[in-house]
Write a structure and sequence with these properties.
- It is a single chain.
- By secondary structure, the protein is an alpha/beta fold.
- The protein has 2 domains: 221 residues, Spore Coat Polysaccharide Biosynthesis Protein SpsA, Chain A, CATH 3.90.550.10; 191 residues, Hexapeptide repeat proteins (UDP N-Acetylglucosamine Acyltransferase, domain 1).
- It has 10 helices and 39 strands.
- The strands form 6 sheets. The chain has a 16-stranded parallel β-sheet that branches. A 9-stranded parallel β-sheet has the order 14-17-20-23-26-28-30-33-36, with no helix packed on it.
- The longest helix is centred in the middle third of the chain and has 21 residues.
- The chain is elongated, with a radius of gyration of 31 Å.
- The structure holds uridine-diphosphate-N-acetylglucosamine and calcium ion (CA).
- Calcium ion binds next to loops.
Length: 459
């Protein structure tokens, strides 16, 4: 097969976003726009992907890592100038180059592939991916001649009244004969409304040379949405969310209210799991089969085993086993590992802690920096006192221990296997296995004390 390359334009600041964050790094369903584009292009197994970076170059490179090569566009003089920066990597090579914008996050590999096939089939030197837009404002317009062939692309700001009526738009995605592209780029000028070197001008240049120019119109305008401001960003989010949710539903996940369910592009969910409204499943979360998630639950970067229930709770960066019951109103903080069959009830916070199989913290507890064994019962109000104001310390609670209600375990401390801690204890020293530890003031009942007090008052 002939060489196939891609150039992804991602050097712009994104002024219209009015943001500290560079435009192409704005996330759509939790993933930066440019990463969506690179991920789709990567599916095509091209010889080379070159991303043009400029504004926020380091941040964009840090995001994309080694999934592509980079070319720096130090000054943003326009999209043609941007592509030219890839000359050291691509100029003169035989093959086809796909050019995409880092701000069109909804484009799919299927559409890019269809564009490529069309380009090869028509033997064109350039093929534009076009779409019909209900509102073409801001997009470059496709100007066709009497025979219906593409003559040129005119930018919104340069368009005549008549051209502004055209609703076939340039999606910003193209295929070019690589060698012809880099030759034509040299002829692009910046005499236009924005004083920029426009990539779409390459079309007219090649056309005037008598080369075949082709257009491939996609039915799906949604896929080609270019995000220039936050209004378009919210539109992209809605479309991507729908796409992701439908994928999961087709795979056998029940989503009760897809409009109010937010699942990241990376998340994996196994079949027969039910997601209730208001749930956000973020990052690289993996959820097993037959789980119940939500309502109103946020899970980020977690691995969740089969048959686990998480209601009205927040869990981040943790491993949660099978058949676990969490919530309502629990908080699982990073680096926690919750074993199989564990129960974490209402108003329980777990941080950087391990809970062994079958252990329970059913109500009102803080478990921080703790290693809790299997079948441990943490009574209502049990607290690991992990912080002395300077350092964090470890609490160990071994298998089968029973911690009475409202106990403080002052770390570092160990409660041995099978030990009992009496309710209301403040444990400052290790409790040996199998022992009963009572660490609270003894109760004193002063008989008839109240009536004596009252007598004194009245006299
Ligand atoms: C561009 C097209 C327009 C098309 C639209 C589709 C041009 C001149 N216009 O317009 O025909 O309808 O996309 O969404 O190409 N960039 C650089 N370096 C630069 C300038 C831009 O890397 O010097 C990058 C931006 O980061 C962005 C992409 O190129 O990812 C497109 O630039 P943008 O300014 O958004 O172009 P549009 O005005 O949307
Ligand atoms: Ca744009």
């Amino acid at each position: 097969m002939e060489n196939r390359f891609a150039v992804i334009l991602a050097a712009g600041q994104g002024t219209r976003m009015k943001s500290k964050l560079y435009k192409v790094l704005h996330p759509v369903c939790g993933k930066p726009m440019v990463q969506h584009v690179v991920d789709q292009v990567s599916k095509l197994h091209l010889n080379k992907i070159v991303t043009i970076v400029g504004h926020g170059a380091e941040k964009v490179q840090a995001q994309l890592g080694e999934s592509c090569e980079y070319a720096l566009q130090a000054e943003q003089l326009g999209t043609a100038h941007a592509v030219m920066q890839a000359a050291p990597q691509l100029e003169g090579q035989a093959g086809t180059t796909i050019v995409l914008c880092g701000d069109t996050p909804l484009i799919t590999s299927e559409t890019i592939d269809a564009l490529l096939s069309h380009h090869v089939h028509t033997k064109a030197k350039a093929t534009i991916l076009t779409a019909k837009a209900n509102d073409p404002t801001g997009y470059g317009r496709i100007v066709r001649n009497e025979e219906g062939h593409v003559a040129k692309i005119v930018e919104h700001k340069d368009a005549s009244e008549e051209e502004l009526q055209i609703n076939e738009i340039n999606t910003g995605t193209y295929c070019f004969d690589n060698a012809f592209l880099f030759e034509a780029l040299k002829q692009v000028s910046n005499e236009n409304a924005q004083g920029e070197y426009y990539l779409p001008d390459v079309i007219e240049i090649l056309k005037n040379q008598g080369e075949i120019i082709s257009a491939y119109q996609t039915e799906n305008f949604d896929e080609t949405l270019g995000v220039n401001d936050r209004v378009a960003l919210s539109q992209a989010e809605v479309i991507m969310k729908k796409r992701i949710n439908e994928k999961h539903m087709r795979n056998g996940v029940t989503i009760i209210d897809p409009q109010n369910t937010y699942i990241s592009a990376e998340a994996e969910i196994a079949r027969d799991t039910v997601i209730y409204p208001g749930s956000m499943i973020k990052g690289k979360t993996v959820i097993g089969e037959d789980c119940e998630i939500g309502p109103n639950t946020e899970i980020k970067d977690c691995i969740v085993g089969d048959s686990t229930v998480i209601r009205q709770s927040v869990a981040h960066n943790s491993e949660i086993g099978q058949n676990v019951n969490i919530g309502p109103f629990a908080h699982i903080r990073p680096q926690s590992s919750i074993g199989n069959d564990v129960k974490i009830g209402n108003f329980v916070e777990v941080k950087k802690s391990k809970m062994g199989q079958g252990s329970k913290a059913s109500h009102l507890s803080y478990i921080g920096d703790a290693e809790v064994g299997a079948d441990v019962n943490l009574g209502c109000g049990s607290i690991t006192v992990n912080y002395d104001g300077k350092n964090k310390h470890l609490t160990k609670i071994e298998d089968g221990a029973f911690i009475g209600c409202n106990s403080n375990l002052i770390a570092p401390v160990t409660v041995g296997a099978g030990a009992y801690v009496a309710a209301g204890s403040t444990i400052t020293e290790d409790v040996p296995g199998d022992a009963l530890s009572i660490a609270r003031a003894r109760q004193v009942n002063k008989e008839d004390y109240v009536s004596k007090l009252k007598l004194n008052h009245n006299s």
